[in-house]
Specification:
InterPro entries: PGBD. It holds the Pfam family DDE_Tnp_1_7. This is PiggyBac transposable element-derived protein domain-containing protein. Residues 1-205 form the PiggyBac transposable element-derived protein domain. Helix 6 (175-182) links the parallel strand 5 and strand 6. Helix 5 (143-159) packs parallel to helix 6 (175-182). The chain has a single domain (60-205), classed as Nucleotidyltransferase, domain 5 (2-Layer Sandwich). Helix content is 32%, strand content 17%. The chain has 7 helices and 6 strands, in the order H-H-H-E-E-E-E-H-H-E-H-E-H. It is α/β, with parallel strands linked by helices.
């Protein structure tokens, strides 16, 4: 539905010749879909370990399930990219983000790894603030490196291979990340911040 937006949900199930889409009515009846859509409620699994609840504990099982299914049904090609996306939301949650430079200014941030050719998301990680930082691998590395390595780890486990070529913007690109990726036989291409640590001094002179 995100790839083919409609003004109203009911139009995905329309019988109008100009609006008809065969896929959605084949999978769901409109009444049943809307019933689930408006009554969907998530809660932490009773089988999870006991302990203090985290910011994302209620949706963790659903997010993990969807994330795994994305890799189960599609393997990313050799050219991949990492970027963040904002899911529009103005409700009351502590991890809601605001960025005036983005088209969607208020919402929840999601980091995603996608296939460059198709745009298909192969791995994603919602951002819940400090709890997300604590859950990532390699705690001694900067967050911009850790989130990339975390997403790549999920993809590599699913495909059992490497040899990827990763494309990033200047928020992520750094010599430190390039060294980490090279140790996994992954190439890196991206724009850079000239004042970032370990960057060649020649870049600042230009």
């Amino acid at each position: 539905m995100a790839l083919n937006p409609k003004p109203e949900l009911k139009e995905y199930f329309s019988n109008d010749l100009l609006k008809k889409m065969a896929f959605f009515p084949h999978v769901f009846k409109r009444k049943r879909f809307l019933q689930i859509f408006w009554m969907l409620h998530v809660a932490p699994s009773p089988h999870t370990s006991s302990g203090p609840p985290t910011r994302g504990s209620k949706i963790r099982d659903v997010v993990t399930y969807i994330d795994c299914k994305c890799r189960e049904h599609f393997n990313a090609g050799p050219k991949i990219c990492v970027d963040e996306s904002t899911v529009g939301f103005k409700g009351r949650v502590s991890f809601k983000c605001y960025n005036p430079q983005k088209p969607t200014k208020w919402g929840m941030r999601v980091y995603a790894l996608a296939d460059c050719q198709t745009g298909y998301i192969s791995a994603s990680e919602p951002y819940h603030g400090s709890t997300t930082n604590d859950s990532l691998c390699r705690p001694k590395l900067p967050f911009t490196c850790r989130i990339v390595l975390h997403l790549l780890e999920n993809v590599e486990q699913a495909t059992r291979g490497s040899g990827y070529h990763l494309y990033t913007d200047r928020f992520y690109t750094s010599p430190m990340l390039a060294e980490e990726l090279l140790s996994h036989s992954i190439l890196l291409t991206g724009t850079v911040m000239t004042n970032r640590k370990q960057m060649p001094q020649q870049l600042e002179k230009r």
